[in-house]
Amino acid sequence: MSYTLTRQEAAILLNISTRSVDRYIKSWKIRAKKEWRIVLLNEEDVDNIKTWDKKIELKQEIITPEEQIKEKEKIKQKEKISLTKNSFENDDKLNFIYEDLRNEIKQKDKKIETLSLQLWKMEEIVKNSISMIEYKKTQYLIEESKNNIKQELEKEKFEKEKIKMQLDEKSKLNIILSIIVIILLIISLLIWWILV
């Protein structure tokens, strides 16, 4: 990994502000490390974001079938206008229509750009709805709870073994006591028999 770009250089490459670069760093889209007082960014991550923006621009070119039909009609109109324009170059009305069509196309292009930018922003919001820090916190809590469960299970096992040993000792003691009682009974019976 090559950490060679400063925040300002990355902002120039991506054509964004340094604040936006900081947002990318906070959302873990660009890895960074600090050397002394300078924050250096990973060059590969910056390149990935740059190519990702180009992919978004390509996505902006997606047009619905109705819009395609309208665009085809406009192209036909433009061809008609260009044919008539060639035949009537000095006609002001044709120039006016041609300008109107160009303005309409520019406005629609701007709308498509703004809509695709809004879509991209919404995708980013959805992707970052659970931040990486929250995800790591939950992972840490899950691991901690697993460790606690393991410790509790080990304690339970130890307690079980301890109780089992105590029961074994009590049962042995009971057997020994019962044997002693039987022997005492036999001795007392023998003594009684001898005396009688």
Explain how this protein is built.
This protein is mainly alpha-helical. Among the domains are: 1-54, Orthogonal Bundle (Multidrug-efflux Transporter Regulator, Chain: A, Domain 2); 60-129. It is built from six helices and three strands. Helix 1 (7-14) packs across helix 2 (18-26) and helix 4 packs antiparallel against helix 5. The longest helix is centred in the C-terminal third of the chain and has 64 residues, at 132-195. It is elongated and about 150 Å long. The termini are far apart. The model is unreliable at 57-61 (pLDDT under 50).
Instruction: Specify Rg, calculated over alpha carbons.
Output: 42 Å
How are the strands of the biggest sheet laid out side by side? Answer: 1-3-2
DSSP strand content: 5-15%
| Structural class based on helices, strands and sheet pairing | mainly alpha
Please give the alpha-carbon distance between the first and last residues: 105 Å
Average pLDDT, rounded to a whole number, is: 80
Helical residue percent? over 70%
Order of helices and strands: EHHEEHHHH
Number of helices: 6
Morphology? elongated
Largest sheet: 3 strands, antiparallel
Low-confidence runs of at least 5 consecutive residues = 57-61
* Total strand segments: 3
